[in-house]
């Protein structure tokens, strides 16, 4: 997934890039939402971009798919496991343990988030400088 945006801030080897959200953005949380139609992302400034420059930022397709599978798959598996275990006792326990399983899944992802954030394949990166007319 690629987006072209404008560099709006620069600090300590990182830049903040603002761009218009596309419908494909969804809610992957790779970016910070700003208003209804804009998003911002912090990326390493590997191309020495300056404030006001336009840059192309990319989140690799493989990393995006893997992150999506983790974000949706882990809570789903925990939900199914909770329902399966709870159904051995009663429908009420199935509902309770299913809900608890979802919570445990999301909590586990939240705890492991710093570990995943360090991996390059899950982070957006700057791939090129763009001319203002190309945007």
Primary descriptors:
six-stranded antiparallel β-sheet; 135 residues
Question: What features would you describe in this structure?
Answer:
By secondary structure, this protein is of the alpha+beta class. It is 39% helix and 28% strand. It is built from two helices and six strands. The protein has a six-stranded antiparallel sheet, with no helix packed on it. The model has no long low-confidence stretch (mean pLDDT 81).
State the gist of this model:
The protein is of the alpha+beta class and 135 residues long.
Q: How are strands sequenced across the largest beta sheet?
A: 3-4-2-1-5-6
Query: Which structural category do the helix and sheet elements fall into?
Result: alpha+beta
User: Whole-number average pLDDT?
Assistant: 81
Strand-residue proportion: 25-35%
Order of helices and strands: EEEEEHHE
State the low-pLDDT regions, or none.
Answer: none
Q: How does the overall form come out from the CA principal axes?
A: elongated
Main β sheet profile: 6 strands, antiparallel
Helix content: 25-40%
Count of helical regions: 2
Radius of gyration: 19 Å
Gap between N and C termini, in Å?
A: 16 Å
Report the count of strand segments.
6
């Amino acid at each position: 997934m690629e987006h072209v945006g404008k560099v709006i801030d620069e600090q300590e080897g990182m830049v903040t890039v603002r761009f218009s959200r596309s419908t494909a953005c969804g809610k992957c949380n790779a970016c910070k939402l700003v208003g209804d139609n804009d998003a911002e992302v912090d990326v390493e400034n590997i191309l020495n971009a300056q404030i006001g420059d336009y840059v192309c930022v990319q989140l690799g397709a493989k990393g995006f798919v893997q992150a999506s599978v983790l974000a949706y798959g882990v809570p789903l598996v925990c939900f199914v496991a909770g329902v399966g275990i709870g159904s051995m006792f009663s429908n009420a326990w199935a509902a309770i343990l299913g809900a608890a399983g979802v919570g445990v899944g999301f909590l586990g992802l939240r705890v492991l988030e710093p570990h995943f954030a360090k991996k390059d394949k899950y982070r957006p990166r700057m791939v090129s400088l763009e001319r203002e007319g190309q945007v």
